[in-house]
């Protein structure tokens, strides 16, 4: 289950609550993956430079919300105001590989990144998936420029061997502030149609729908029905369309589309093709806007999808476990085994993480698999971790094996308990009691008052 968000946040700070945006109170099963595409994240030069060195406020905000629920930030990519984040449940980490990011500038003839696309691709259970967050040129008259820019973004190539081009991925999600407008109709007809919830009257003049009928490269993209109000342009903190002097005509600027490669290939063949041959299918369960969010002049749009995969990968590359009872009082052992074809590296490491860790660098401590190895045979290897590195308070943790060759976590343990350092805790308790005993009793001096 995949939940995809697109939102032009208009340089605003994160809102107080995103429960409904992320459907965290839904009665349905929890999501396996969140993909969040933002546009117009505050990109003043000072902000942008500091965000390069540290996580930006939006990334920190979503990590704070999602990490306690068992999601880690798998990857992110930022280009000025464009930000793309992917969060995933722990259980899927060993089956996600070959993660690469890319960005394409299209603003100011390709020299400026205020417009363009940011992309994250990966192999998910052996299937190639690509997510593309775009911010295309504004204004009703720039349809051709939008299409040209999108074609340019599609043509970009990921760096690395054997990585397919964008359109060669099994599934490609395309979303963002695509800036397509409603042509021909005047503002009064558009607003009247919206007030009467007769959105279908506007669909045929939506510039993206019109382009999909003409442009061959767009015809393979699928979109759910636009059964929600156009998401642009609103007065801030309201559900009232633009009352400024410009009085922008409402439009569905914020969109989510997808393309399944094998459907495109088979659709071009004359012979029928059975669903059994299909190794991956995408089902749209929900395509809605969220009117309650008013921090920008755009309303966020979400798409909830079911991805049905016939796994091409069913076993993790590495299985690992803590040995015996772990305590902060003594050195501990980790045992692991790898599949025969696993290409290990001297730079591989095993990290100790709190269960609610935020991203791959959020480890408490780590051990190098070669430098800290103490025994090895063809079935199993052992690595030690020093007691000095283990948190004295103990708690619930898990282990992750990070592969330098794959640049990702390829094995993850079940959560386990680390016992606290009792000696240190008793010492702290004794010191606390002693300091309490030594405190001067000032009560007597206050009796006369």
Automatic annotation (TrEMBL):
One Pfam short name: SKICH
Q: Which organism is it from?
A: Eudyptes sclateri (Erect-crested penguin)
What are its GO cellular component terms?
Answer: endoplasmic reticulum; plasma membrane; ruffle
Q: Spell out the protein name for this chain.
A: Inositol polyphosphate 5-phosphatase K
Query: Which positions make up the signal peptide?
Result: none
Its family remark reads: Belongs to the inositol 1,4,5-trisphosphate 5-phosphatase type II family.
Q: Which GO terms describe its biological process?
A: negative regulation of glycogen biosynthetic process; negative regulation of insulin receptor signaling pathway; negative regulation of phosphatidylinositol 3-kinase/protein kinase B signal transduction; phosphatidylinositol dephosphorylation
Residue span(s) of domain Inositol polyphosphate-related phosphatase: 1-313
Q: Which gene encodes it?
A: Inpp5k
A GO MF annotation of the entry reads: inositol bisphosphate phosphatase activity
The superkingdom of the source organism is Eukaryota
Instruction: Show the CDD domains listed in the entry.
Output: INPP5c_INPP5J-like
SMART domains in alphabetical order: IPPc
């Amino acid at each position: 289950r995949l939940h995809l968000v697109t939102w032009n946040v208009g340089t605003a700070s994160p809102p107080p609550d995103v429960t409904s945006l992320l459907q965290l109170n839904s009665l349905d099963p929890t999501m396996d993956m969140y993909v969040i595409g933002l546009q117009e994240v505050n990109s003043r030069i000072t902000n942008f430079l500091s965000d390069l060195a540290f996580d930006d406020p939006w990334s920190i905000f979503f990590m704070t919300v999602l990490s306690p629920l068992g999601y880690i930030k798998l990857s992110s990519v930022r280009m000025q105001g464009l930000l793309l984040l992917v969060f995933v449940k722990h259980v899927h980490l060993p089956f996600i590989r070959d993660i690469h990011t890319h960005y394409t500038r299209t603003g100011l003839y390709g020299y400026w990144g205020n417009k363009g696309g940011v992309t994250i691709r990966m192999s998910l259970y052996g299937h190639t998936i690509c997510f593309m967050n775009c911010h295309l040129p504004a204004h009703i008259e720039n349809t051709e420029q939008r299409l040209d820019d999108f074609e340019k973004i599609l043509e970009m190539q990921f760096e690395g061997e054997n990585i397919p081009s964008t359109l060669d991925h099994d599934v490609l999600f395309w979303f963002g502030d695509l800036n397509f407008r409603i042509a021909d109709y005047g503002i009064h007809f558009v607003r009247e149609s919206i007030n009467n919830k007769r959105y279908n009257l506007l669909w045929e003049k939506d510039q993206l729908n019109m382009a999909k009928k003409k442009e061959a490269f767009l015809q393979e993209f699928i979109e759910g029905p636009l059964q929600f109000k156009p998401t642009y342009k609103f007065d801030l903190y309201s559900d009232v369309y633009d009352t400024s002097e410009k009085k922008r005509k409402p439009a569905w600027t914020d969109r989510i589309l997808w393309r399944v490669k094998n459907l495109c290939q088979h659709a071009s063949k004359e012979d029928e093709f059975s669903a059994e041959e299909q190794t991956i299918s995408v089902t749209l369960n929900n395509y809605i806007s969220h009117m309650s969010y008013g921090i920008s002049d755009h309303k966020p749009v979400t798409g909830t999808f079911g991805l049905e995969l016939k796994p091409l990968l069913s076993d993790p590359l590495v299985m690992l476990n803590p040995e015996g009872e772990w305590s902060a009082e003594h050195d501990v052992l980790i045992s692991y085994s790898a599949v025969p074809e696993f290409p290990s590296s001297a730079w591989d490491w095993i990290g100790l993480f709190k269960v609610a860790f935020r991203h791959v660098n959020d480890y408490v401590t780590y051990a190098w698999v070669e430098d800290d190895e103490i025994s090895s045979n063809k079935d199993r290897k052992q690595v030690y971790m020093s007691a000095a590195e283990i948190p004295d308070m103990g708690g619930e943790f898990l282990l992750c094996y990070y592969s330098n060759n794959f640049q990702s976590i390829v094995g993850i343990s079940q959560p386990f308990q680390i016992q606290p350092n009792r000696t240190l805790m008793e010492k702290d308790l004794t010191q606390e009691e002693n300091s309490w005993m030594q405190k001067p009793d000032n009560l007597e001096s206050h009796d006369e008052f």
